[in-house]
Amino acid sequence: MTDYADWTKDLIADIRANGRPTSGYFEGRPVMVLTTTGAKSGQPRTAVVTYSRDGDDYVVVGSKSGEPEDPAWFTNLVANPVVTVEADGQTFQASATVAEGADRDTLWERHVAEHAQFAEYPSKTDRIIPIARLKPLG
Q1: Exposed, middle or buried: residue 92 (CB in 10 Å: 0-12, 13-18, 19+)?
Q2: What would the pLDDT profile of 6-52 be if each residue is shown by its tens digit?
Q3: CB neighbours of 19 closer than 8 A, spacing ≥ 6?
Q4: What is the spatial distance between Cα 12 and Cα 5, in angstroms, rounded to a whole number?
């Protein structure tokens, strides 16, 4: 595999050009380009994130593949909840809210049903993997 930064840059370019990934691991999977505002830097930060849907909301999971800490993009959206989403060939702003309790549990089950690889992540970490709803604005 190429350098991770280059791979991510190419994946983002593919999503932006085609509205979705057209080759490689993410081909055919629902992924978005998510731009957050850095919690410390205040600068735009871009990540590629798998999502599921709950009605009009996009649901993103801060799994980091079961690593011990939340991904930086999740920390950023908690600190600065207005984000930019590029998904399904559209670009829009959304407001992020962290799901809790029964809502979080329901969203987790649905997400795992669509993305089976997420099922193993809780066993790899001591943290509760966070989930956020991205509600389109406007």
Answers
A1: middle
A2: 888 888 998 888 888 888 778 778 899 999 999 999 999 999 999 99
A3: 88, 89, 90
A4: 11
Q: Pull the structure tokens for residue 115.
A: 């993305």
Cβ within 8 Å of residue 42, ≥6 positions away: none
Please tell me the pTM assigned to this model.
0.90
Token digits of residue 47: 């990540």
Phi, psi of 121 (to 5 degrees): -65, -40
Question: How many CB atoms are closer than 10 A to CB 18?
Answer: 11
Q: Tell me if 80 sits within 8 A of 73, measured CB to CB.
A: no
Q: Report the distance separating Cα 130 and Cα 6, nearest Å.
A: 27
Cβ atoms of 68 and 127 within 8 Å: the answer is: yes
Torsion 70-76-81-86 (CA) sign = negative
d(CA 8, CA 10): 5
CA of 99: how far to CAs of 22, 86, 122, 135, in Å? 31, 21, 16, 12
Amino acid at 34: L
